[in-house]
Amino acid sequence: FILVTSIHLVFKGTGSNNTKLIPSQWSIALESSYASINAIVREQIGLRNEIYLPFIYSLFFFIIIANLIGNTPYSFTITTSIIVSVGLSFTIFIGVTILGLYKHGLHFFSYFIPSGTPLALVPLLVLIEVTSYLARALSLGVRLFANMCAGHTLLKILSTFLYQMFGSGLLVAVFT
Fold first, then answer.
1. Where are the alpha helices (DSSP H) in 46-81?
2. In terms of Cα–Cα distance, which of 28, 45, 158 is closest to 99?
3. Is the pTM of this model over 0.85?
4. Last residue of a domain, which of 40, 69, 98?
5. Does residue 26 contact residue 15 with C-beta atoms inside 8 Å?
6. Do 108 and 165 have their domain in common?
7. Residue 82 in contact with residue 62, Cβ under 8 Å?
8. Contact at 8 Å (CB) between 56 and 45?
9. From CA 30, how far away is CA 15, in angstroms rounded?
10. pLDDT tens track, the chain, 176 positions
11. Residues 93 and 156 grouped into a single domain
């Protein structure tokens, strides 16, 4: 976590434009990423909820830097740990649930009842909707973990194959 935070701060420090008239390449890259994430946030949650943009922006860079650290030799990607991935997922899930309860009060629970539901089906549908809402936190953490493990396994397989292919002289025999 300290490495991810320090890398992010270095990027922000080198990309600042406080004293320059012409922006640096880092500054352009950071502003471009900010504009892209801002467009996605506006499209998904609207203009009124742009207050959450710094959190989403920080979360995006935390995950991307944490995943890119794993591409350096002899390092470990922290999101390939199920504890970190599911812990991050549950932390965000609890925060979003508390925020929903704070903003909507008891009306928050009405989102678990689909519109137009017959009264007889309400208990069953509330149970199904609450279960799917709770399972979302676990599934997002497991998906991040599984994608990172699959990607690193694929890189390991390909790098081992290329090493053996170049080491065996097969490539030299084919092209000569």
1. 53-69
2. 45
3. no
4. 69
5. yes
6. yes
7. no
8. no
9. 7
10. 677 777 767 766 655 556 667 777 777 888 888 899 999 888 988 888 788 888 998 898 888 888 888 878 788 888 888 999 999 999 999 999 999 999 989 888 888 888 888 888 888 888 998 899 999 989 999 999 999 889 888 888 988 888 777 777 766 667 65
11. yes
Which residue has tokens 């089906």? 121
Which tokens is 150 given?
Answer: 């699959």
Residue 61: which residues within 8 A CB-CB, separation 6 or more?
8, 33
Q: What is the pLDDT of residues 30-62, one digit of tens each?
A: 888 889 999 988 898 888 878 888 899 889 888
What is the rounded distance in angstroms from the CA atom of residue 109 to the CA atom of residue 105?
8
Residue given tokens 């320090």 in the structure block = 6
Tell me how far apart the terminal alpha carbons of the chain are, to the nearest angstrom: 49
Are 92 and 59 a contacting pair, CB within 8 Å? yes
Same domain, 144 and 157: yes
How far apart (Å, rounded) are the C-alpha atoms in residues 59 and 173? 49
Per-residue exposure over 60-91, b if at least 16 CB sit within 10 Å of its own CB, e if not: ebbbebbbebbeeeeeebbbbeeebbbebbee
Last residue of some domain: 35, 54, 69?
Answer: 69
Single-letter residue type at 118: P
